[in-house]
Amino acid sequence: MLIYAHRGARGYAPENTMAAFAEALRLKADGIELDVHLSRDGHVVICHEHTIDRTSNGHGWIRDLTLKQLKSYDFGSWFDRRYQGQSLVTLSEFMAWFTPTPLMLNIEIKNGPVIYPRIEEKIIAILQQFNASGRTIVSSFFHPSLSRIKELDGTLKTGILFECRPLNPLQFIRPTKADYLHPCWKSLDAGWCPAALAAGIGIHAYTVNTKEEYRFTAKMGARAVFTDYPDRFNTHAGPQ
Ligand code: G3P
Ligand code: CA
């Protein structure tokens, strides 16, 4: 089982900051999951929500703020005063840190071109600049974004995010040409999981935070989990 640190090791450090990413590396996660948006001036930036209200001392929609404005806020203190001064991270800044590490990467596109024009092109350009496409998966709940990724770079791996336990998640694969299914772990069941595995579609489940959830997810055949606590499951001796 592969362990992806969800938004960095967000159980231990403020999510989607360099502190959380460094913690994921320290805890020997196999990979990092992060979420991206576009700033008003077109930079790919890392944050979970469309606004910065919950995770910073600022306020507003990311798409309405320039990178300079976004960088002026503190993204660490809300979690713990020890993290005061953590700033919003651009995808390029993250990649400069990530490149020499052994980590894998899952980039989640939040909402895609409906809100962020050409975000897929920008992500691909950054991955190519850092020669990281081969160890990256791009995922999204907005599946047309994943179709667009495949149009732009057919070799880049993509994962279909879904939450609501659809009857047959395999139906998402053909129109998007996606490589993986990324369900909420609660959506796993003995019906579609074996069918996905038989079709060669890997299952990567989120957000698995307890040992019970992990055991169930493993039993359903998932090959990776996204977790806020990448040190919790002691899986590194196990098969990938
Ligand atoms: O990639 C899995 C997970 O991150 C999706 O949900 O809301 O945590 O971005 P969310
Ligand atoms: Ca995410």
UniProtKB/TrEMBL annotation:
It comes from the Bacteria. It holds the Pfam family GDPD. SUPFAM superfamilies: PLC-like phosphodiesterases. GO terms for biological process: lipid metabolic process. GO terms for molecular function: phosphoric diester hydrolase activity. InterPro entries: GP_PDE_dom, PLC-like_Pdiesterase_TIM-brl. This is Glycerophosphoryl diester phosphodiesterase. It comes from Dendrosporobacter quercicolus.
